[in-house]
Amino acid sequence: MKSSNIGGQAVMEGVMMRNADKYAVAVRKTDGEIVVKTEEYKELLVSYIAKAARFADGNPLTIYINSSDEDKKEFLEKRTGMTVTVSEEDFLGGIRSVIPGRNILIDHSFSGALEKEYEEFTFKGGVTGE
């Protein structure tokens, strides 16, 4: 059976889904309305690479993409003028960049975003022990 290459993960009050070329985030606002935002995934990666390059401010920078995005490597290199490395570690998508001389990780990965949401999550409800 051929894989659909569609994946997803939970976000606060919603879900993020992605396939090879697009991603979408759907969240429920406090008034109950569901808002959906869809973007071109490759353009998201380009914007993350540009942000990392600006932050590096001329320092050497190693840019990693997830192995599931290997088919986008050539496009990203041509579009950004940066060398892109396919990571051996799975981080669900997005990019990770390293400034080796400053020992800095710039994490625009989906797994990093999910971990941050998990750490900041506060449960406001449920059984009160009554």
Summarize the structure.
This protein has 130 residues and is an alpha+beta fold. It has 3 helices and 8 strands. Helix content is 27%, strand content 33%.
Number of helices, where a helix is a run of at least 4 consecutive DSSP H or I residues: 3
Largest sheet: 4 strands, antiparallel
Strand-residue proportion: 25-35%
Helix/strand-derived category reads alpha+beta
SSE succession: EEEEHEHEEEH
Query: What would the principal axes of the Cα set say about the shape?
Result: globular
Poorly predicted segments: none
- How many angstroms does the end-to-end distance come to? 50 Å
Describe this structure in words.
This protein is α+β, with helices and mostly antiparallel strands and 130 residues long. The chain has three helices and eight strands. Strand 7 and strand 8 (104-109) form a beta hairpin. The radius of gyration is 17 Å and the shape is globular. The chain starts with 6 loop residues before the first strand and ends in a 10-residue tail after the last helix.
Tags for this model:
27% helix; single chain; alpha+beta; 4-stranded mixed β-sheet; 4-stranded antiparallel β-sheet; 130 residues
Question: Topology of this structure?
Answer:
Blueprint: E1 7-11, E2 14-18, E3 22-28, E4 34-40, H1 41-56, E5 62-65, H2 73-80, E6 84-86, E7 94-99, E8 104-109, H3 110-120
Parallel strand pairs: 5-6
Antiparallel strand pairs: 1-2, 2-3, 3-4, 5-7, 7-8
